[in-house]
Write a structure and sequence with these properties.
The protein folds into 7 domains: 104 residues, GIY-YIG endonuclease; 66 residues; 77 residues; 178 residues, 3-Layer(aba) Sandwich (Rossmann fold); 171 residues, Rossmann fold; 58 residues, no CATH class; 93 residues, Alpha-Beta Plaits (2-Layer Sandwich). It has 26 helices and 36 strands. Strands 14-15-13-16-17-12-18 form a 7-stranded parallel β-sheet, with helices on both faces. Strands 19-31-30-22-29-28 form a 6-stranded parallel β-sheet, with helices on both faces. Helix 2 packs across helix 3. The chain is globular, with a radius of gyration of 29 Å. The chain starts with a strand and ends with a strand. The structure holds adenosine-5'-diphosphate and zinc ion (2 copies). One zinc ion binds next to loops. Its EC number is 5.6.2.4. It is an enzyme of class 5 (isomerase). Belongs to the helicase family. PriA subfamily. Component of the replication restart primosome.
């Protein structure tokens, strides 16, 4: 008898064994997908990990449905990496598999498919088999179908290959992510309106503009340019040349003299000039590159600590070139998609089609394509740029992993399992493949800098900005005093307003940072003090003025904004605190002639949300950009000279051992967006607590002072890097039950780990979506075996789960939960 062990994409502890025939035994290789029955009627896509002849002892092995691949789609190196991840982050291989494989690889009976009506069937008729046609017919009258329904229609279980074929032909899509063509970035261009194409009219227009000199200059510049070359003229460039504002350009459009049109700038299939010469590195960059290479001889990991705009990206590019030239694969990790928009364009200039991009906002299709290109060592996937999930691509020959902005908290996946830290996992992945890791940041994570200080990682420093542009000039504004002296207009101090006005007058751009979205986080009754709460969560509802709603940021619950207090009926409702929306509203009143943009998770929904805003800002269509921490992520805007932080205190007061470190990083990073190219930038930080040591350190760009002070605190209070943390979160809908269960768990853990256990404690928001939360934190000293600790925790969990009244309590294990 022959058997295959498989991983199922569900959280079950063990691999499952299925029966196979002798021929199948000879054919199946680890890493191939199989369709297998599971439970009473489910079909899953499973991944073969080994074939053997040992019959399972405790259950009778079922037969597989069928083999889905001709050759493996997952390689052995990946399986190895998955095993490490499951073991280290205390989850199952199925959890890792689910995170790792593109959704399109994981058809299961509950999956829903949709017909893509845009794609006609006719051209593909030859490629569609009978089953395929039957499936397409089944869509008549149904917009969606479950795979299990397809099984009924075809009256058989082996339907996945036919569905896969239809997906490949773009006729059908998985519902989770309907295939959407990659919309390229739109760039605005100007041309003369047809009516003005005659000489005579041209003169008329110029006369007409005699009293609007800037507009006249725009027009003259336009003529000069068209006379010089027939190339389309970018709105933004024309505006810059004429030192005009976007409003002045707009006026010409409104007068019917200019027309704005858009040209697509394709990003995914790069057709521009390939292999632009790499920028020549300056002396500092050259030196850094040399030092990195030397460091790579003794260290597997090197930290490049370079101030914002020191030109780290160009250093990465040069290093990447060398690895690619050796025929190695390179992975370039980014914390978030917000960044890729700019970086893709930058990297494509150097690497052309050698570059592939991989992240969760890409469609199933695009992702499968990149996956296969990496798997088959295609030249177009030698360099992959991606968010954390790119770690799971089928690399076999990695030479280098670059982790850009390595301090970013979005490298950590919080939910669902695997709850991995992509930077840390990248180091393990690189180690498994004998590759090197380059971590880059202007504000390294404390743990990283610690590892570099003790010599575990190499350390290379760049402390000058490219072109010797000075670091921005920081000032802290005491808004308590400004309030007292009545020098505040809304949330703006007189100093900040003056700076904004000056900047706009010079035709330069402004970034304003407020770490909260919405209009205001609390609505309070002036009469009785009642504040509306979410019925499902323990938080107050945030007022979103634009939508006229009160919304919960945890569960999405929303109601229309109240006219009266729910408790006492008073009409005197007051808002407390403020978010980006309120800043935007105030700005629009203060600067009605200027364009204000907002970047937060409310305005960047959808695949191209970020891109639209970033492009508009780059093109000068937005003068002031207001945003949350999305603004901090390494964006490179050339014309921003002022950054304002509206309220630094809210970040500093978050109850978390990293709050101070994170505030430093956030403020330093937004500040880093100012004055990146020629002129020195200015940063104004408003705070009620201007003497806070973190603000002082930020304003002096004193990373190391911050580092030493924070490290000392971590030492005293026993936090990473001096110990490891494992957080256990328990959830249940019943308050009484969660109390009992968490106390039991806390006690059981204390019996083993004594005072290394903190909690159980309710988190700051202790009820979300009607579930009550309790946290227990285990601090593990460096010298204590992590292996044994985890074993002991799992043992306690097993005992816990065997207690019948606790069975319904959910437990989440989070290793390195920060
Ligand atoms: P960092 O990643 O350190 O914040 P960047 O790599 O974005 O800095 O560089 C900052 C700016 O300086 C960018 O606009 C970049 O184009 C420019 N720059 C960096 N290095 C060079 C170089 N060698 N030649 C020309 N421009 C450069
Ligand atoms: Zn009231
Ligand atoms: Zn809620």
């Amino acid at each position: 008898m022959y058997f295959v062990d498989v991983i199922l994409p569900i959280p079950v502890e063990n691999a499952f064994t299925y029966r196979i025939s002798e021929t199948e035994y000879a054919f199946i290789k680890p890493g191939m997908r199989l369709a297998v029955p599971f439970g009473k009627s489910k079909i899953y896509t499973a991944l073969a990990i080994s074939v053997h002849q040992i019959e399972p002892r405790i259950y009778e092995a079922k037969e597989i449905e069928q083999i889905l691949d001709e050759t493996p789609v997952v390689n052995l190196a990946q399986l190895n990496f998955w095993k490490w991840m499951a073991q280290y982050y205390m989850c199952t291989l199925g959890d890792v598999m689910r995170a790792a494989l593109p959704r399109a690889f994981l058809l299961e009976s509950e999956s829903i498919i949709k017909r893509i009506s845009k794609t006609p069937i006719e051209p593909h008729l030859d490629a569609i088999d009978e089953d395929g046609l039957a499936i397409l017919n089944a869509f008549e009258g149904n917009s969606i179908l479950r795979i299990s329904e397809v099984m009924q229609v075809l009256n058989k279980k082996k339907v996945l290959p036919s569905i896969n074929k239809l997906i490949d032909l773009d006729l059908v899509a998985l519902d989770q992510e309907i295939y959407e063509a990659y919309k390229p970035k739109l760039v605005k261009y100007v041309r003369l309106a047809p009516a003005y194409n005659e000489e005579e009219k041209m003169h008329e227009a110029l006369d007409e503009l005699s009293r609007a000199p800037k507009q006249r200059e725009l027009l003259l510049n336009y003529f000069t340019q068209t006379a010089r070359s027939p190339k389309p003229i970018k709105a933004k460039e024309l505006q810059e040349q004429s030192e005009a504002s976007s409003a002045q350009l707009k006026a010409l459009v409104e007068k019917g003299i200019f027309e704005i049109y858009k040209i697509q700038k394709d990003r995914i299939n790069y057709s521009g000039k390939e292999d632009s010469p790499i920028k020549t590195l300056n002396e500092n960059q050259e030196q850094a590159l040399g030092e990195i290479k030397t460091s790579c001889q003794n260290h597997d990991v090197c930290l490049l600590h370079g101030v914002t705009a020191s030109g780290k990206t160009e250093v990465y590019v040069n290093l990447i070139k060398e690895y690619l030239a050796e025929g190695k694969q390179v992975l370039y990790l980014l914390p978030e998609i917000a960044l890729t928009t700019q970086l893709v364009a930058r990297l494509q200039e150097y690497f052309g089609n050698q570059l592939s991009v991989y992240h969760s906002k890409y469609s199933v299709h695009e992702r499968v394509e990149v996956w296969n290109n990496v798997l088959h060592h295609e030249s177009k996937a030698q360099l992959v740029l991606g968010a954390r999930s790119a770690l799971f691509l089928p690399f076999e020959n990695l030479g280098l992993v670059v982790v850009d902005e390595e301090h970013e908290s979005s490298y950590k996946q919080y939910d669902p399992a695997p709850r991995y830290q992509a930077r840390d996992a990248a180091i393990v992945l690189a180690h498994q493949q004998n590759a090197k890791v380059l971590l880059g940041s202007a504000t390294p994570a404390l743990e990283t800098f610690y590892n570099a200080s003790i010599g575990k990682y190499g350390l290379v420093t760049m402390n000058k900005r490219f072109g010797n542009v000075l670091m921005p000039e920081n000032s802290i504004i005491d808004i308590q005093e400004k309030h007292r002296k009545k020098r505040m207009t809304g949330h703006f101090s007189d100093d900040l307003l003056r700076a904004i006005t000056d900047t706009l007058e010079l035709g330069e751009q402004v970034i304003l940072f407020q770490n909260r979205r919405g209009y205001s986080p609390i609505v309070e009754c002036n009469t009785c003090g009642h504040a509306p709460q979410c019925p499902n969560c323990d938080v107050s509802l945030t007022y979103h003025r634009h939508r006229g709603q009160l919304r919960c940021h945890y569960c999405g619950y929303h109601i229309a904004m109240l006219q009266k207090c729910m408790a006492c009926g008073s009409e005197e409702l007051d808002t407390k605190g403020f978010g980006t929306e309120q800043v935007e509203t105030e700005l629009k009143e203060l600067y009605p002639e200027h364009n204000i943009g907002r970047m937060d998770s409310d305005t960047t929904r959808g695949k191209h949300g970020f891109e639209k805003i970033i492009t508009a800002f780059e093109q000068g269509e937005i003068d002031i950009l207001v945003g949350t921490q999305m603004l901090t992520k390494g964006l490179d805007f050339r014309n921003v000279t002022l950054v304002g932080i509206l309220n630094a205190d809210s970040m500093l007061n978050i109850p978390d051992f990293r709050a101070h470190e994170r505030s430093f990083q956030l403020i330093q990073q937004v500040s880093g967006r100012a004055g990146r190219t020629a002129k020195r930038g200015r940063v104004l930080i408003q705070s009620f607590n201007p003497h806070h040591q973190i603000l002082q350190q930020v304003s002096m760009n004193a990373y190391e002072a911050m580092y030493h002070e924070q490290l000392e605190e971590r030492h005293i209070y026993k936090y990473p890097p001096f110990c490891r943390l494992i957080k256990i979160t328990m959830k249940h809908r019943d308050f009484q039950k969660i109390e009992e269960a968490s106390v039991w768990m806390g006690q059981a853990l204390k019996n083993v780990f004594r005072d290394q256990v903190l909690g159980p404690e309710p988190p700051p928001v202790s009820r979300i979506r009607n579930e009550y939360y309790r946290n227990i934190l285990i601090k593990i000293p460096r010298k204590q075996s992590l292996e044994k600790t985890k074993k002991a925790i799992l043992k306690v969990r097993t005992t816990f789960s065997s207690i019948s009244q606790f069975r319904s309590v959910k437990i989440v294990l989070n290793v390195d939960n920060y």
